[in-house]
Every structure is written in structure tokens, then in C-alpha cells.
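Weekly structure sync, notes
Attendees: PL (lead), two postdocs, one rotation student
Agenda item 3: pending single-chain targets
PL asked that the sequence for the first pending target be pasted directly into the notes so everyone works from the same version. It is reproduced below exactly as submitted, 291 residues in total.
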Amino acid sequence: MTSAVQIGEQTIGGDAPVYVIGEIGLNHNGDVDIAKKLIDVSADAGAQAVKFQKRTPDISTPEHMKSMPRETPWGTMTYLEYRYRVEFGKDEYTEIAQYAKSKGLDWFASPWDEEAVEFLEEMNVPTHKVASASVTDLGMLRKLKETGKPIILSTGMSTIEQIDTAVEILGTDKLVLLHATSTYPLPPEEANLRTIHTLKDRYGVPVGYSGHEPGLQISLAAVAIGAQAVERHITLDRTMWGSDHSASLEPRGFGALIRDIRIIETAMGDGVKRVFPGELAPLSKLRRVDG
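Predicted structure, written out during the meeting:
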């Protein structure tokens, strides 16, 4: 039996409903108003949380990419300049935090460097999310462990040995794992959903699913086989400029996903075989008893 982890006022694991995270990431394109609209999308759909990404561009941007030219809606700039252009600071995140709270949502982010961890701690986030790209950033994992906060760890691009090392550093008392395959978009043959059971059995912690597939089927299948959290990228429009929009769910799709997750949860039942009230009328009409 896996343990349960408390995130803010919500629980992941045990008998709690699936914890759904709207992954805004950088799909706000550096615009607080777009971020707020995506928070509205998440709240209207019935999600429990929204997630962003937090970088210190000078630290997290690889040296060989800093001076590379990037075509953007704001003109041609270096990749480092672009990273600063779309990065929110304290004022923006303070506004975002207040807005998310007003909508009844947790908000947190994936830090991409140790300075970003310090920033998010100053913002008093309820949890930290480790992106798949950061599973082997052991210094940052140790920094996250020191916060004492619950940690959600995505496992894409990782071997089981690399996950073992990360879990050893983070501990299992406040840990949630998300099975993920970091292929964009995700083809069904690389989803490997049975890994959800592998992770649960190996670590004894709540396990969810972080999906990058175009549709809903794989995420819904993950819930049906036991995922206790689901994270999906969301966007206002998949045709918007930016690297993650095309692999994201639009508002209608995100709403349909959460609707169907709740239906699946209800349909799973408790496993006790019994005659339900709705069966009584057909039983009286159709059942033959061999005397």
C-alpha cells in the first residue's frame, strides 16, 4: 500500500481523488494576463493545481546556447535574451500566486537551478516539482530536500538506477513520482504505462502520470490502472508561438480530461461483488432460477 502525501490542502494517494495539475510551463509566453487566463482554464476544468517553470537564465542556459539567435514574436534575439524575456520575477509571481489562490488552486513550479529553488522558497510554494531534465541534478535535489517540502518528481529520460539515486537523496516520506516519457508528442508505443506499477512497487510512494501525448486516451488509461496524479500541458491555442503549445491541451480538451477522470474514479468502485439497486428490476424480470 502506497503512502499519501499532503500538498497544501490536497492529498495525493490513498483514497484521495486524482490530483490534476495544469502545466502552464512557459505557455504564458512571458505575459501575466495569459498566465491568468490559463489559471482560469484550470479552475474551470476542475484541476487542483497549476505549475510553472522557474529558471535563473544565466545559470540554467547551457553556455553553447546562450548566444544562439532565436526568432521570436519580439524580434530576433539571443537564446539567453529570449529566456529572460519569458521569465517571470517576484512581482509577476506574487500576482500569479494571489490569483491562483483566489481560484482555489495550488501553484508551484519546476526549478531548473539552485537559485530558482531559493526564489520559490521565498514565494512559499506548497511543493516543488522536479522536471525530468533535472533528475540527475543531484546538487539541486539536495537543495530541495533541505526545504522539507513535499517533492513531485517526473521520471522521463531516466533509468531506474538514476531514479534510485534521486529517491535516495529526496527520501520517500514526502515524495510523489510521475511516470513520464519525454517524447514530444508522445507516441502510444513509448507510453509504457505499466511503469506506474513498477514505480509503486519499488518505492512505495504515490505515483502519477505526466503526459505529452496529443489526445486524452493515454492519460485516462493511466488513471484506470492506478495513477494518483495527472499532469498535462495546457494552452489557450495550440497554434500560439512557443515550443510547448503544440503538445498541449486546449481548454475544451483539458475540461474533457478531468470530466472523464472523475467518471473513471467513480466507475472503479471498491471491488466487492454485489447486486446493485439498478439491477433489481432486471433481476426480477430476467433471472431464471433452476429449482
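Discussion points:
- The CA atoms of residues 277 and 289 lie 19 Å apart.
- The longest strand covers residues 19-25.
Action: rotation student to compare against the earlier draft before next sync.
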